[in-house]
Design a protein that fits this description.
Blueprint (H helix, E strand, L loop, with lengths): L6 E6 L3 H6 L9 E6 L3 E3 L9 H4 L2 E3 L1 E7 L8 H6 L1 E9 L1 E2 H9 L14 E3 L15 E6 L2 E7 L7 H11 L7 E3 L7 E2 L5 E6 L2 E6 L2
Parallel strand pairs: 1-11, 3-8
Antiparallel strand pairs: 1-2, 4-7, 4-12, 5-6, 5-11, 6-8, 9-10, 9-13, 13-14
């Protein structure tokens, strides 16, 4: 699916191990934030790392991503299931130091999550190939070293239930992308890093500059 993206809805702390590695509480309901469509770039392009002397380190977070083929508003789990039009992997890039600084001040932290290039997406795949999304595995390698090993079976909020829950918070539209949360293993991107993202038999590569 390649519909026009209206917004990117991100889910924080959907893997307990990731919440714990950052010293955060494990949530009892999905933590939601958004990235604008202007932050989206294709994985086939190099990742442009912001100047760390000005912005601090850029952290990577690999995530399973869903694109909707139909609008959802106060949807049932069954309606959410039927609205999935595409599946892929993405990188939620984060200016972690800036995010922490803004959080400490009680300020919004869009500056740390919504910059141009902050949402890297691979190619959209047919969702029928992934069953009910309860046992989807994916990986991120950096310089041929495994950094993140995702398994949707470890999600706190499974895919269908997650989509339905989001649609009760605000309406979703066809083309919207949902980043379903990152597993443990997040870290800093360095200039020259070579990244490989794997989802089943599919593989994508990019590099940082």
């Amino acid at each position: 699916m390649q519909a026009t993206i209206g917004k990117v809805v991100c889910v924080g702390r959907n893997y307990a191990a990731h919440a714990q590695e950052l010293g955060n509480e494990v949530p009892s309901s999905p933590l939601l934030f958004m990235k604008p469509a202007s932050s989206v770039v294709a994985v086939r392009n190099d990742i442009i790392r912001l100047d760390p002397t000005r912005y601090g380190d850029t952290h990577y977070e690999a995530e399973l991503c869903i694109q909707l083929s139909a609008d959802l508003s106060r949807a049932s789990v069954e309606q959410a299931q039927q609205a999935i039009g595409g599946v892929t992997l993405g990188l939620d890039l984060t200016l972690r130091e800036l995010q922490s600084e803004l959080k400490e001040k009680g300020h919004p932290w869009e500056r740390a999550k919504c910059f141009d290039g902050a949402c890297v997406l691979t190619d959209w795949l047919d969702p029928q190939a992934f069953g009910d999304f309860t046992q989807v595995k994916y990986q991120l390698y950096i310089n041929n070293e495994l950094k993140q090993d995702g398994d949707t079976g470890l999600m706190l909020f499974p895919v269908y239930e997650l989509l339905a829950e989001i649609s009760h918070a605000f309406s979703l539209q066809a083309g919207d992308v949902i980043m379903t949360g990152t597993p443990s293993g997040v870290g800093v991107l360095q200039a020259g890093d070579k990244l490989t993202l794997k989802l089943g038999a599919h593989e994508w590569q990019t590099q940082v500059r």
